[in-house]
Amino acid sequence: MRLLHVRPAGYLPERVSLPDITLSIDLTVFYTSLSLMEDSAMDSLLSAYKTVGDCRYREISGLYWEDFTPGDVFEHRPGRTVLDADNVWFTLLTLNVQQVHFDAAYASKTEWKKLLVDSTFTLALLTGMSVRTVSAKVVANLGWDKVKATHPVFAGDTLYAESTVLHKRLSNSRPGQGIVTVQTRGINQDGIEVMSFERTMLVYRRGHSPEEMAGY
């Protein structure tokens, strides 16, 4: 490694030893370079736009397989306030006839004392919140596992989601794709976890997605 020795105006050799200057400057250069490398990598990972012309940018979403690193945690925003209408319409849409979700008189006699939000709606909502980051570049969902409804959800609750990358591997049969598993947690406005689940996805590798052909 080539070391750079800088002597400021008024430099007095008898007051400052050369080894001290060498060590200080060398560490400064090292940490500055490391910081710039980290910033560059993070900018590349988290860039939300790409340049498509003079002063023209296109929104982009999602991560390629190469961008996922086990242990990384992504906090998904915005949050979403659950409404009575969400709950009632979702139960009608899915033919869920459990009356605790839409019969307020019945629900008032249960331990909940009010309408309980359908847990499959919560699962769908939290999955949707995570799409922009973890599954905007997927070929297909491969499955949901370890789904746990850990706390009741009611109309008026505001939910947030976060996803932790658990592991990833290349596909054995699809060279342009890889498999990623994340754990997603739903948290309400009081910081209480309401649901958690693992989701495994088949994700495009960089340079193998149809986005360019589709104008993305």
Could you give a quick summary of the protein structure above?
This is MaoC domain protein dehydratase. The protein has helices at 18-46, 84-93, 104-107, 119-135, 211-214, and strands spanning 49-53, 56-59, 73-81, 138-149, 158-170, 177-187, 193-204.
Overview of this protein structure:
This protein is α+β, with helices and mostly antiparallel strands and 216 residues long. It folds into 2 domains: 1-46; 62-214, Hotdog Thioesterase (Thiol Ester Dehydrase, Chain A, Roll). 30% of the residues lie in helices and 31% in strands. It contains 5 helices and 7 strands, in the order H-E-E-E-H-H-H-E-E-E-E-H. The chain has helices at 18-46, 84-93, 104-107, 119-135, 211-214, and strands at residues 49-53, 56-59, 73-81, 138-149, 158-170, 177-187, 193-204. It has a 5-stranded antiparallel beta sheet, covered by helices on one side. Strands 1-2 form a two-stranded antiparallel sheet. The protein is elongated. The protein starts with 17 loop residues before the first helix and ends with a helix. Residues 1-8 have low confidence and may be disordered. GO terms for molecular function: lyase activity. It comes from Yersinia pseudotuberculosis serotype O:3 (strain YPIII). This is MaoC domain protein dehydratase.
